[in-house]
Structures are given as C-alpha cells and as structure tokens.
Amino acid sequence: MINSQFDILIAGVGGQGTVLASRLLAAAAIKEGYFARTSETIGMSQRGGCVVSHVRVDSENCSSIIPFKTADMIIAFELAEAARSLPRLKKDGSCIINTQVIKPVSASLGTSKYNVDEIDEYIKNNMKNVYFIDGYSIARDLGTVKAINVVLLGAATAIGKMPFSKELMLESIVENVPQKFRDLNKMAFERGYESILIELNK
Amino acid sequence: MGVFMGKKLLMGNEAIALGAIRAGVNVVTGYPGTPSTEVLETVAENNPGDIYVEWSANEKSAMEVGAGAAYSGSRVMVTMKQVGLNVASDPLMTLAYIGVKGGMVILVADDPGPFSSQTEQDTRHFARFSNLPVLDPSTPEEAYEMIQYAFELSELVQLPVFMRPTTRVCHACSTIDLVDERIEHKPEGFEKDPRWVIFPSLAYKKHVHIEQLQHRLSDIFSELNFNKVYGSGRLGVAASGVAYTYVVEAMQKLNANIKVFKVGTPYPLPKAAAESFLSGLDEVLVFEELDPVVEEELAMLCASKLQATKVLGKKTEHLPFAGEYTFEMVYKALAKFIGVNIEEMENTSAVPELPARPPVLCAGCPHRASFYAVKIAMKGQKAVFTGDIGCYTLGNAKPLDMVDTCLCMGAGITVAQGIKRTEPDTKCIAFIGDSTFFHTGIPGIANAVYNNTDITVVILDNSTTAMTGHQPHPGIGNTMMNSISKKIDIYGVVKACGVGHIVKGDPLDYNNSIKIIKEAVEFKGPSVVIFEAPCIALFKPTVEYRIQDNCKSCKKCINSIGCPAIAIVDGKISIEPTLCYGCGLCTNVCPFDAIGRCEK
Asked: For residue B325, is pLDDT > 50?
C-alpha cells in the first residue's frame, strides 16, 4: 500500500444520517490500522440544511477538509447535493448517488430553482464513474428510511476502492449500531452492496 | 502510566472533555453555544461520579461559579462560545487580577465563517486584553494534549488560562490514543485571604504583577512543544490553529522547503522561539484565523529589534480578514509566496443553479404558529418585531418575515424599548425564547416596567434550549447532575417584575392566540404573552395532516407559512408524512378546508 491516503466526501441533507455514515467509515479505517479524520459543518445546518462530511483515511499530516479535486469518492445522499459536491471529486474519482430529491422550502416558494433534469445532465457530463442507486426505496422496503445511510455504505463498498474490506466495513457498522437494529443494518448493507455489484457486472 | 485504551475516533469537543476529566477537573460550568456545546455534555456523559457539572443561567454566572470553585482549589473548566465571552467579560477581567488557586481553563470556541454566530471576533484579543495566556489547538488530538497541560499551567502561574479551539477542531473528529488514567485532584478548600477581595490598591499591585508574568510565560512557552520552529531558508511561514494544518498539507503538495513557525500559544508569543524563527528571514507569511494577532506580534518584534524582515498577512492584504480559511486559499497564497506556478483548483465547468437550503423552522415548530398568529393579529397596524438569539431567529425568513432586528442575547426586549421611545405610535413587539429569558431577558423586562415603556414581550416557551441541541435551563428543572430541581416559573418572574398584563396561551390554538396578542398590544404599559408549546424534538408525533381532494392548488399554505413539509410534488400540493408533526397550523390558512387530520 504505497499511497493509502483515501478521501471520501459524504453529501446530503440534514436528517438523512450522513454524519453517522462518516463515523462508521472512519471507524472501519481505524480498525484497519489507519489514522482517520472526519469533519463537517453542524450548527445552522440542522434539519433540512446541506450537510457535508469529509472522511480522510491515512491523514495524520493532513487537514480535516478534503481540498477541491481531491476526493477519491463521493457518497451523495441526494441529487442536488451530489452536484454541489462535484468540485471536490478528483478526475477519476467514483461517485455513488442516491436518486432521492428533497425540495427545500425555497424551491416551493419560488425563490430558488430545483431543475432535476438539468442537474442530472450536469452530473452525467462531469463525472466519469458515477453509480445511481434508489437508496430511499431500498431502505423503505426494509421497513425504515433511516437505514438509507447503511444502504449507501454498502453501495460504496461494492465499488471496491476503499482501503478496507467489506467484512471490516460491516463489522464497524454492527459494532456501532444498537443491538436490536443489527440484523436490519446488515440487510441494508447487503442490499446496497448487491445493487452496485449488479451495476458493475453489466 | 495508565492502561492504553486504544485508538478512538473522537470529536475535538469530546477529546477536550475527556482530556479535562483525565486532568482531574472537579467543576465544569458553561452555557450552550455552537461550536462549544458538546464539551460540557461529554463531561456530564462520562462523569466518573465526583465531578460537578452545570449548565449555568448565562456565561457570566458560569465564569463566577467557576471562579469560586477555583478560589477553593478545584480544577475548573468553563465553556462557552466566543460571543458568550462578551457576557462573561466582566468577571473575566477582574479574575485575571485576582487569580486562582485550583487550575482554571476557560474554553472559548471561536467560529470562523461565521457558521452560527453574530460576529467573527477573535478570542485571542481577550487573552491579550486580560493578560491571560491562550492555547490555540490545530487538531482534535492536539486539543486533547493541550487541555491537560492547561490545568498545570494555570496552577503554575495561578491564573486562568484560555483555550480557544475553532469549529474545525471542535467538530472535526480525529484518531486519538486514549489512556485510562486520571489525575486525582483534591481541592484544599477556600482559605480566607485578602487576595480574593478586589480593591483599587490590590488592582494596582496585581496589574504590575501580571505584566511581569508575561515575560515568564513567554519563556515557558519558548520551551513548549506546542510551539515549533523548523526548516530553513530566507522565507518563512508562521501559522496557528487550524490554518497550520492547511499549511502542512500545502507544503507537502508544493514540496516546499521553507522555515516554519507553528504557534500553539499566540499570546504571550514565545519571544525566544519567535526570534529564532525570524533570524535570517527576508519575508514571513502568517496564516491564522481570525485576526492578525500573531502577525502583529511578529511585526512588533521585528520593529522593536529594527529587523528588516517583512511580515505579510492580513494587514498587507495577502490574506483575507473575514471568513474561514480554506486549503485552497492557503495553497494559492503559499505557492505565490515561494514563486511556484500551480494549476487551477476551482471548478471551471458551468454549474446549473442549485437549490438553496437556508435554515428554516422545522415542520411543526410552535414558533411558526406564534409568529403567524402575531402577524395576523397585527395586520394593518404599524408594528416592529424585535427578535433575539435562538431557533426563533429563523422567524426572519420569508414568508413569515417576523424578525426585524436581532442583536445579541436578551436584546430583543430592550431594543424594542429604544424603538418605542423614538416612534411612540409604532407597536413594538419583542420575541424571546425561554432559555434566552433566563440568560439575559429579565433585566430587559425590569427595564420596561421601571421606565414604563409600552412594549409587548412574547415569550416563546418551548421547554428547551433548542438551537444548540436541546439543553435544559432554569425553567426546565433537570440538571446535568441527573437531578431534578424546581422549575422556575416564567409567569411568576414576570409578575414579580410588576408587569401589568400577563397572559399564557397555546400558540397552536390559532384563534385564541390572535385574541390574546391583540389584547396585550392594546394594553397601555408593558405586557407579556407567554406562548407555551414543546419543541418537536421533545416528543413523537401522534397526528398528521394530509391535503385532500378538494385542494384548489391556491398555494396559500405554502406562501403564507413556509412549512418545509408542504411542497409541490408531481404538480400537486402535498404534505410529506415523514416531516409533518401535526401542529395543524396549515388548516387555519387553507381557505377551502382542504387539509384533513388523521392519526399517524
């Protein structure tokens, strides 16, 4: 492992569980023996604001924020947030995008625009390795939309670029969620993992 | 030595809390304030059983309770955000003269950006102003080490010590080596002594003492490994706080070979270390958040030695004064400084317009109902609505637009009085939350009654300190020691202040709310309306509302109250069931009775 530095950006909307996802990734990295850092903006992004988490693996001599054009991977929990985070992705970086659209009040009031097709096109034109997944439906079918973050972690793991194994990622999740939800989370992870594996084998 | 507990991912605030516990802290006080809040919460959550932890009524109380404990030999930590220090500055300034016996750390979190603060003030100025040392951590792991050292330093010089982390230390997580070992610090107790009583003659003596102490601190800091001088050459970079981590990363990327001064103690600046850094340098570029504190110290040092080294930074317009620093900004500035060409880092392709997500009141928030009721009640009358700090500041956003001023904690009540005295024909209505009321609202009400200024105060009592993460306060009754204390009755306090007209109401009772507001505003003299309804974070919803088939898509619901649960989906107005909390406000707005109630 010459360069085991790996930067993952997680972008979503407040309340979607992005922060927990970042902690689980960092925990897996630490288990693998790496130094991990995470960072995000909390505060006024409560409920409904943009939340961006930075996870930096093997980052002892780095800052906690991933610079522009540096992220190896983006895990986007929402479509517009995927587009917003694009400038941080490096040229051949990979991107997992949950296709969910969350329209803010400003779009309903007309003070802000949310053109889904335009954003979709922009993403496809500017990201080489992008994988779309309907994480919302997968989580909902399992019984709770709150599991969406673990579904997306499964999807991200399936790409095969992370510096730790699938088993370690799953271990990290199981150890850090309440006992009664362990089976649900395992299933959510596997469903997310499978859906991307299908994409990759196409 | 202690048992190595392993590497753990910890948030900076958590690391500071665990570090303080490890250092034997006995008393922790504070007031919630982003980004500092989690420090006190983490101490409470990990309380081995013998630490006293409290959320104080405000930062002044927190500082004074801390001072009393430190006089008595306790190791004390007082936590707050930077603007909270303004509130605590009265005890702070005198405490710097009086000094302490047990180690006292004043943990003040700055907010470059700012992300959630009224100002971008730099706490290191307070350190300079009060002549107290300040530690400026760059990373969560450094904060873990610094907080433990801070208690030792404080006891060595018998002065409180500042530590000022910023958002990217407070809320960033890092891999920290935790050791299970705790210093047992037993406070000796309060010993009667004239040193604890401030008089002008003592103030003079202490002033002389504290000025001399700066030299001793500077010498101590020159030997401290939080300050580092390394590298060589005729160009140098000085950096403190989070900015240092951007410098390290930028230097790696640029393969730069320059002299570096990592400043962990911006005040007093370690003179010997600084001189060693400056020696042989033609130019120095200084990276720091927020103000040019280190930059000015270095420039003054050069001037005092008649050294021709150019000190560059904010004052020379090489770097911005305002806003948070970023890697890209540091990288660009450093590349230019050392004369290296770099490629464009920003995104150059055309980005489509993306939806803005400004912070809004949650769906179901009772404040929305309160603001809307007042808005309707005051329709057609000339009125000014003064606001205050909390979730309810978000009542400013369209379509509610019910916050015309916001200054600082408790100011809504008093600013309203100033406006009223200038425009007697205007109705002046001040909004304030329950926690803010106990923080600094009471003197404002006393002021209105004593000076007989005809304003109406609307107290928004949602039973919590919501914006900072739902902490308890004097009106709630539960404390950070897991005990239940008497709830202080807001109505009773207002009555005791002599307000002539006080009414309580449920803001979700639309018609009644409009009625009681009108009556309160009509009343000649200061009046108070207390709207009581819990924050939605405190309970699970049992009811929800749905748009029915007779909806005419007039959009009055969306345009009048701006609830984030109501949106246009596939051309039809719809309420998102996972967001609706069942407040029912929308039903009062719909002209067609097209919104129905159902059990969740």
From this structure: yes
Per-residue pLDDT, A105? 85
Percent of chain A with pLDDT over 90: 80
The interface residues of chain A toward chain B in range 128-157, judged by CB-CB distance below 8 A, are: 145
Mean pLDDT, to the nearest integer, of B23-41? 97
User: Which DSSP category does B487 fall into?
Assistant: P
pLDDT tens for each residue of B236-274: 999 999 999 999 999 999 999 999 999 999 999 999 999
Torsions phi, psi for B260 (to 5 deg) = -125, 140
Nearest CB neighbour to A63, from listed B327, B566, B568: B327
| pLDDT band at residue A1 under the 50/70/90 scheme | very low
**Per-residue pLDDT at B578:** 85
DSSP string, B498-511: T-SEEEEE-TT-HH
SS3 A113: coil
**Residues 40-99 in B contacting A (C-alpha not used; CB under 8 Å):** none
Please give the structure tokens belonging to residue B197: 């009583």
Chain-centre distance for alpha carbon B201:
36
- All residues of chain A having their beta carbon less than 8 Å from the beta carbon of residue B9 are 23, 26-27, 30, 36, 38
Q: How confident is the model at residue A41 (pLDDT cuts 50, 70, 90)?
A: low
Place of tokens 């909270």: B84
Contacting residues of B for A64, CB less than 8 Å apart = 139, 168, 172-174, 242, 245
Task: Place A3 in a pLDDT band, splitting at 50, 70 and 90.
Answer: low
Average pLDDT, chain B: 96
3-state percent breakdown (helix, strand, coil) of chain A, nearest 5: 50, 20, 30
Considering only residues 26 to 55 of chain A, which have any Cβ-Cβ distance to chain B shorter than 8 Å?
Answer: 26-27, 30, 34-50
Tell me how far apart the alpha carbons of residues B187 and A119 are, in angstroms, rounded to a whole number: 62
Q: What is the pLDDT of residue B347?
A: 67
Interface test with A, best of B173, B240, B361, B566 (most A CBs within 10 A): B173
Cα–Cα distance between A73 and A95 in angstroms, integer?
Answer: 6
CB contact under 8 A, A106 and B357: yes
Contact A43 B398 (CB under 8 A): no
Which residues of A fall within a CB distance of 8 Å from B32?
none
On whether any CB of chain B is under 8 Å from the CB of A126, the answer is yes
Cβ-defined contact of B171 to A40 (cutoff 8 Å) = yes
Which chain A residues contact residue B352 at CB under 8 A? 83, 115, 118-119, 122
- Terminal CA-to-CA distance of chain B, rounded, Å? 56
Percentage of chain A exceeding pLDDT 70: 95
- Cβ pair B354:A67 closer than 8 A: no
A63 phi, psi to nearest 5 deg:
-80, 180
- In the predicted structure, residue B4 carries a pLDDT above the cut 80: no
Using CB atoms, pick whichever of B115, B326, B360 lies closest to residue A41.
B115
CA dihedral B471, B475, B477, B479 (to 10 degrees): 40
Give which of B549, B551, B581 is closest to B565, Cα–Cα.
B581
Going from the C-alpha of B194 to that of each of A10, A27, A44, A92, the distances in angstroms are: 58, 53, 47, 70
pLDDT in tens, B530-546: 999 999 999 999 999 99
